[in-house]
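Quick one: WD40-like Beta Propeller Repeat from Rosenbergiella nectarea, structure tokens please.
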Amino acid sequence: MDEVQVTTRLQHHQLTNAQVWSADGQSLVYDLRPAQHLFTSQCVEKIHVETGKVTEIYRASKGAHVGVITAHPQINDRFVCIHGPESPDDEWHYDVHHRRGVILSSGKVETLDACDITPPFTLGALRGGSHVHMFSQEGDRISFTYNDHVMRQRAVEEDQRNVAIALPYHPVTVLNKAPREHDGSHFCVVVSQTTLAPQPGSDQISRAFEEGWIGHQGYINELGERQRWALAFIGETVSVTGHSVPEIFIVDLPDDFTAYQHAGDQPIEGTERCLPAPPAGIVQRRLTFSDGVGVALQPRHWLRSSPDGRLIAFLMADLNDIIQLWVISPNGGLPQQSTQGYHDVQSAFTWHPLGKAITFVLNNQIVIYDLTLDTIVPLTTKTSTAPCAEAVVWSPKGDKIAFMRDIGGFRQIFTVTTTELYWC
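--- reply ---
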């Protein structure tokens, strides 16, 4: 297959790990940070993959930066991205606990997550920074990772990364606003549970991250019933020998919006001494017990479920210490090794829109792992330098895959066409 270079301007173009295609599959969205590790992009754009037409979606002002943009799966002109603080200063500048999500739609900008950092805290608001926002398949709910300003003021280690969601229940208004506090369009809650000092050998975790929605319509549980809403994420456990071991966890989420208002043992909105807590009835469940191997943290990847919700894909080393693609059921059980090669999987991955296959970088090539045929299908020629690891993203129609290469010191966006076997 011939790959096509989509962007050509002499600047960096950064794709997010998923949801970078417009709903109609015609355009790609990205930010313009000057380097992968620098969050200093001033705007987010989209480019039509056939015509090359570039459209600026949004430009920040007052010294703020924006990036990590994702596209609504059903609506063409609707996006969400990270927004840094306006008028940053020594006390409040861009950091993991000083950022928010914004929804961009038809030229309008709407803050997603309300922020309340002074007690009494507000139900439905958060107290810090949200990151890598992912729409559910319908696009009405959004997941993200979260860091807490209030706990970080106490001690850096008390700001444990968690997974949170934004619900279209009702907008959240923060009363008696202090500087840096703001309202939000969605009702937000933390859904993971972390512990400052996990007990060795237990299911307690110190961090929750790299989450993914389960299925387009949830999954079928062990009782044969449909669990409509669920998220999988990586949780950092501690082994009996005291080592950090990333494992896979899942939380089943209620359908009813009002259920998210009922507190469990700790307040949903948090206190001055504790993080915001999951609502009552949300219990995280451990799926993998890797005997110390752990989910691979490099290459960085996000857990991604098959569209039908039957399988969660992840990366983990095999017995020969080679990073392979694995899958596991949301109901648990033993994980199944998918790839069997002699080369490490080198990137994040995404599923075919109908669940036929998974695409990623292997042996410096964009490849497809076909689940039905149990085989690797190379799509690009092997090059001396691998495509970039952060994003290999299948289009909604299954006909193209988007990825990035470093060309002449700049990160450029490419696409490669798949075989007709994978077109939807």
